Amino acid sequence: MDQAINPAVLTLSCPDQVGVVECVSGLLARNGHNIVESQQFVDPETRRFFMRVESAGPVDVDRLRTAFATAPQAFELQWELHAREERSKFIVMVSKFGHCLNDLLYRWSVGSLHGDIASVVSNHPDLSQLVQTYDIPFHHIPITVGDKAGAEAELMELVSRYDADLVVLARYMQVLSDDLCQKMSGRIINIHHSFLPSFKGAMPYHQAHRRGVKLIGATAHYVTPDLDEGPIIDQDVARTDHRHTPDQMAAVGRDVESRTLARAVQWHLEHRVMRNANRTVIFG
User: Fold this and answer.
1) Which of 60, 118, 218, 249 is the most buried (most CB within 10 A)?
2) This model's pTM is above 0.85
3) pLDDT at 168
């Protein structure tokens, strides 16, 4: 691509009204940006308009941001603008189950993620060697009884140090505080099996096996102070039957969890996910 061409990704939402698309396309056109791809959606319940636009032109993202700052206030635009080639940094948090982490590390190593793993954080040292093979910093932050706040302060220091835009809980088996969830609102993605809330606690696949479950699923969602109830980004399922043992069901579950989390992370990194109250709009 010509060096003078600056690809950009614009996401925005606002109350649905006449003239929004004309306003957006006009601002881009006046700055020499051609629309390469455009997707939009109106929520019929809230009458809120959502839009994602990829464009390219001679004006860089900083100048485009200045142009959008002059958009008519009547539209009440809430927007973000990113350079298309911009790669976000993210921190992966994990405990002892390494399948989701291993999947993300591999995808990152072959260049299939539109972002970079800045570091891996764990409350256990077990997966340090796996992470070190990818030459990524590993930080062991144990959870001391009565001092979870200290561990979370260490995490926030790492978020600042690595300039991380996102934290990915790749089977991190600790509940985050309400304060951390609020500070990082819309910037933490979690994965869990979709048996919740039916099979809470230890050994969920053994519980599911005893109940004859026929579908194994996973849900990736943004983390909020309401445990496992944040806006859902992606879900997937796989079938099982009477022949599957609990261990075989767990293996199927690991595959579903890994691919579901990877999709959610990729969509977030590509600015395809937009919050809509406690739901999401996904521009695929």
Assistant:
1) 218
2) yes
3) 98
